[in-house]
């Protein structure tokens, strides 16, 4: 089932999310709905707060990027990179910071350059509650960092300079007021 995505200004997007256990109600159905919602919105990542739940859960599917010529050198690694992260904790961020033009399904029509470290070490449970500690680099690390921020109550716009924040303020106000044209279901703050 495709769920409405919460728009910028919704309080749930600012919450530090809480951990869940393997008995979380309808977890597998929720994960399926999140992947369906993400795909329906042409996204490559979706965190639980974006659908109104303040739990430490996010999904990533970067397989669409395998067709992008910008990622030809890692296309093989990207084509099957579809993962669930439950109760994730980034243990370490290393390497050079690099800029990348990020966007967010909760903040449509806004894209800005964000600096992030190139490699992360993350501990998480998968959809079967198997614990993993893994290192990710390149665009995979970037997408994971972006989604991880969501479960921490952080949005990509928080990483912008004061000047950039002023420049996008009007767009953010329009999003809060529902003045955006998107091809997916959204729920706007009241």
Q: What this model shows, in words?
A:
The structure is a single chain. This protein is of the alpha+beta class and 190 residues long. The protein has a single domain (5-182), classed as Peptide Deformylase. Helix content is 25%, strand content 32%. The chain has helices at 27-40, 75-78, 138-151, 162-176, and strands at residues 5-6, 45-47, 57-61, 82-104, 107-125, 131-137, 186-187. Strands 2-3-4-5-6 form a five-stranded antiparallel β-sheet, with helices on both faces. Strands 1-7 form a two-stranded parallel ribbon. A hairpin with a 5-residue loop joins strand 5 (107-125) and strand 6. 35% of the residues are buried. The mean pLDDT is 96.
SSE string, helices as H and strands as E: EHEEHEEEHHE
Return the CATH class.
Alpha Beta
Sheet with most strands: strand arrangement: 2-3-4-5-6
User: Sheet with the most strands?
Assistant: 5 strands, antiparallel
Kindly report the CATH topology: Peptide Deformylase
Apparent shape? globular
- Could you tell me the strand content as a percent range? 25-35%
Query: Quaternary status of these chains?
Result: single chain
**What's the number of structural domains?**
1
Low-confidence stretches: none
The average pLDDT score comes to 96
**CATH architecture title:** Alpha-Beta Complex
